[in-house]
Write a structure and sequence with these properties.
The chain contains 20 helices and 16 strands. The protein is an alpha/beta fold. The strands form five sheets. A five-stranded parallel sheet has the order 2-1-3-6-7, sandwiched between helices. Strands 9-10-13-8-14 form a five-stranded parallel sheet.
């Protein structure tokens, strides 16, 4: 045998399974070493390194979990996959949390086994995407920890749930997991679950057959099929309607989908990542999100920190964004200081919007503190404070110069009414512009404005725009 051949350790106490695995891997030009017990497996692992490990869950002297734990200590770079009894999904999830690369259900389906093996061996060829990793900018401790976590989970096939406020960069984290893993050469398909109408969701995800419903004039493959071999990123997964949560759970567990109008299921080799700014655990408690789907998606959890918790990253992040927007712009220390004092409810997305707006309106190459305008909500508060102070000063001045008039509160009352109308007009114009730029997609417009969808809905009702 060629020394360049990959070598795999296969562990099972059933001779027939060992024989099947050995033949299957042999036909893929992979050498095999067999073990029937945990003791034998650990002995082999102590004597040589392997490119891949396949282990049964239940063994005469222990479990596959024992082997996963030991392998994480002595050779964490070696991908290990678990062979589990069909339907024992909870055990498979525990294996993934412990560090398993993936799992295969018994009885073993050879096409799925081959796909798993090819993905595992691809890890050896995967080179870190240093350029892409640098897009996650920041030297703070929580950003260093986030990059380290991304590096670890990228090697696994476990589902990952990414949590964080709007604008923190959850999609970027998902892209980096994809780009630094064995699926990096295959498609990364993002889908905003909150932007797809409920009645079209099944067709978008799973596809449909021609004639399956009114308007289905052609076959449509669906997003699971589009992501074949790669990664499907479900953004705002909390917005999935309950009936679709059931279908998504089955698609993930069975690794297959059934297009609308088809009697056949289609195998799908897809890694699923998801993200939301909502509290999924609370939604489970409230009956708004299925508990079984929650545990299936949330095998590995990543929290993306808000910008206000890493303010030391604002200068370097600002410089990087300015290089992308306009490399000729120089930002003053006072402008940087003003940014560092701001809490950024819209996070990195809001910072980028602030810089784009400021540089567009600049008359020179120097960005000063006065050139920075914050989000419409925050700016409204600032303007209201400033203008109220101005009116108060004017009221005091009038009262001092004309003591015979005791109605100094009247101009302030009228001025405040005018101010409220003026500020409401600004808010209406900002929201309308955002809606028009997003083709009246309320979810996307809310993100652009750096506010929650609930706040967006309240403002639309208040301003008569809904």
């Amino acid at each position: 045998m060629s020394s360049n051949q990959p070598i795999a350790l296969i562990i099972d106490d059933e001779p027939d399974i060992l024989q099947l695995l050995s033949i299957t891997l042999g036909r893929m030009n992979i050498q095999t070493v067999r073990a029937e017990t945990v003791k034998q497996a650990l002995q082999h692992l102590s004597e040589q390194t392997f490119d891949l490990c396949l282990t049964d869950m239940r063994l005469p002297d222990g479990t596959g979990m024992d082997i996963i734990s030991e392998l994480q200590k002595i050779s964490p770079q070696t991908p290990i996959a678990m062979l589990t009894a069909h339907g024992n999904m909870q055990m498979a999830i525990e294996a993934l949390k412990l560090g398993a690369f993936d799992f295969v259900s018994k009885p073993i389906e050879l096409p799925k086994l081959r796909e798993l093996i090819q993905s595992a061996l691809q890890l050896k060829k995967t080179q870190p995407k240093s350029k892409s990793t640098q897009q996650l900018i920041g030297d703070s401790l929580n950003m260093q920890q986030l990059r380290a976590t991304i590096g670890k989970v990228a090697r696994s096939q476990a589902p990952v749930a990414i949590f964080g406020e709007s604008g923190t960069g959850k999609e970027l984290v998902a892209r980096l997991i994809h780009m630094n893993g064995p699926r990096h050469a295959e498609p990364f398909v993002p889908v905003n679950c909150g932007a797809i109408p409920s009645e079209l969701m099944e067709s978008e995800l799973f596809g449909h057959m021609k004639g399956s419903f009114t308007g289905a004039i052609n076959d449509k493959p669906g997003l699971f099929k589009a992501a074949q071999g790669g990664t499907l990123f479900l953004d705002e997964v909390a917005d999935l309607p309950l009936h679709m949560q059931v279908k998504l759970l089955r698609a993930i567990q069975e690794k297959s989908v059934r297009p609308i109008g088809s009697s056949q299921e289609i195998s799908c080799n897809v890694r699923v990542l998801c993200a939301t700014h909502k509290n999924l655990g609370q939604m489970v408690t409230n009956g708004q999100f299925r508990q079984d789907l929650y545990y299936r998606l949330n095998v590995i959890e990543i929290m993306v920190p808000p910008l206000r918790s890493r303010k030391q990253d604002i200068p370097i992040l600002t410089m990087a964004l300015l290089r992308k927007i306009n490399p000729q712009i120089i930002i003053s220390p006072s402008a940087l200081n003003k940014l560092e004092q701001y809490d950024f409810p819209g996070n990195v997305r809001e910072l980028e919007n602030i810089l784009e707006r400021a540089t567009t309106l600049l008359d020179s190459n120097s960005l000063e503190a006065d050139d920075l305008m914050f989000s419409s909500h925050t700016q409204t508060i600032i303007n209201q404070k400033d203008l109220s102070l101005s009116l108060k000063e004017k009221e005091n001045s009038t009262a001092s110069s004309n003591a015979s008039h005791s109605s100094a509160s009247t101009p302030l009352y009228r001025g405040t009414l005018a101010l409220d109308e003026f500020l409401e007009k600004i808010e209406r114009d900002e929201i309308t512009a955002a809606l028009e730029s997003c083709r009246w997609n309320k979810t996307a417009a809310a993100k652009q404005l750096g506010i929650s969808f609930r706040a967006m809905r309240y403002k639309l009702q208040k301003l008569g725009l809904d």
